[in-house]
Amino acid sequence: MRRHSLPQRKFHSGFTYVEILVTLSIVGLLFVPMMQMFTHAMAATNESRDITTAVSLARWQIERLKNLSNDLENITILAGTMWPPPEEPPLELNDQFWRIDHFINEASKPVEVRVSVRRDGETKSLAELYTLIAETSWIQPK
Question: Which domain covers residue 24, as residue numbers?
Answer without folding.
Answer: 17-133
